[in-house]
Amino acid sequence: QVRLVESGGGLVQAGDSLRLSCAASGRTFSLYAMGWFRQAPGKEREFVVVISKSGGDTRYSDSVKGRFTISRDNAKNTVYLQMNSLKPEDTAVYFCAANRATMSTHSYNYDYWGHGTQVTVSS
After folding, report:
1. CA 102 to CA 100: how far, in whole Å?
2. C-alpha dihedral over 114, 61, 93, 55, to 10 degrees?
3. Integer Cα distance of 83 and 102 in angstroms
4. CB of 99 within 8 A of CB of 108?
5. Apex CA 64: angle with CA 69 and CA 43, to 5°?
6. Contact by Cβ (8 Å): 60, 47
7. Can you say whether residue 106 is alpha, beta or left, with left for phi > 0 and alpha for psi between -120 and 50 degrees?
């Protein structure tokens, strides 16, 4: 069992930055690839980025590539999402998720989810 808790969301203006954190419980954090997904009102949950178990490999959605950076600290059981040059279309609830099997971009492959943190970007 892995418990995930996101933090760091908030209300910012377009062009600003935010850093989200996702803290995981347990001693098996390094066994999981970690992903960030987001869900805007009235839309389906969409993939944002995933990082491998070691942190050596990442995969980004085209919509955030070049603006967002994922990283992880396995000693602290935490994964981070640095979001720069935020746009109003980035407004969503952001979820972190853990996946033991693959660096998947599909939400159905993820085993554990946090409750999400709201990011709102005003124009």
Report:
1. 6
2. 30
3. 24
4. no
5. 125
6. no
7. beta
**C-alpha angle with apex 28: 25 to 34, nearest 5 degrees?**
80
Strand ranges (E), the chain: 4-7, 10-13, 18-24, 33-39, 46-51, 58-60, 68-73, 78-83, 92-99, 112-113, 117-122
DSSP-based three-state secondary structure for 59? strand
Amino acid (1-letter code) at residue 8: G
Question: pLDDT tens per residue, the chain (123 residues)?
Answer: 899 999 999 999 999 999 999 999 977 899 999 999 999 999 999 999 999 999 999 999 999 999 999 999 999 999 999 999 999 999 999 999 999 988 999 999 999 999 999 999 999
